[in-house]
What does this fold into?
Amino acid sequence: MDFLRERLASLKKSGLYRTLREHHGPQGATACIDGKEVVQLASNNYLGLANHPRLKAAAREALEAFGSGSGASRLVCGNLALNGKLEDKIAAVKGQESALLFSTGYMANIGILAALMEEGDVIFSDALNHASIIDGCRMSRAQTVVYPHKDMGALEKALMESKHSRKRLVVTDGIFSMDGDITPLPDLVTLAERYGCMLMVDDAHATGVLGAHGGGTGEHFALADRVDITMGTLGKALGGFGAFVAGDHTLRTFLINRARPFIFTTGLPPAVIASGIAALELLEAEPELRVRLWENVAFFREGMAIKRPLDP
Ligand SMILES: Cc1ncc(COP(=O)(O)O)c(C=O)c1O
It folds into this structure.
């Protein structure tokens, strides 16, 4: 086991060593970290739902009614009816025929990519896509072409060069997780259609944030019906936990049959599903949550742009 110490030492040396910090209390605008009160700017809790009374009440009710765990994978006997209710709500907000829940966004991405793509296929992946997409590409065994961030010229060139491959899929974050910029969806849709390629959008950070109803990148650009596969998470703007894929019925049925992270894992706990349903109801009932978010974004950006003269 000596290699562990050596690897850790090398991580420290290169500034890549990670440590955990303890947070106390719920997610909010401020946080208590290591006993110190700080302003929270790192969380994905964009709408402040992670500690919302309606989500907590829904979770408590489901806990009382259905217990703490689902007991098995959904294909065995863990398919509580709550799953279907949440999936219908997700499909509606995403403007898609159907949806399928996954335990996490990480599992959704590796599950979708490894189920759909295989050796002999090509995946085109933006250079700044999330790690779970990168891992999904690797697990699929398809050839992966990483195009420079949002470079549509480079993507088109790669598409032209791979005309004779079997299946092809372009995959992109909707809002990029680290830089916060939005993918050029209209160009991606055009290219995917021109070259007969599937298009997958990871809307982990855009769900609840972009679009008049919080439907995400597809709704923002009025192109939801031209995206083949949309995934998203319930753990960011929706303030809970879990993830989903939205698309047509055939995609859903295929993933139920072939996505290993769906098949071989325990269904989400009832309280988690119920808080997801409550979050989507709030998204619909309180559009002002999104208005407030964008006002806060504008306020923060404006404030950061002010260059104060250095103190004498
Ligand atoms: C773009 C993106 N996709 C997927 C995920 C994974 O989601 P989860 O945290 O539900 O596993 C994340 C999480 O940070 C993300 O930022």
Residues 159 and 195 are 7 Å apart (CA to CA). The first strand starts at residue 23 and ends at 24. The chain is about 45% helix and 15% strand.
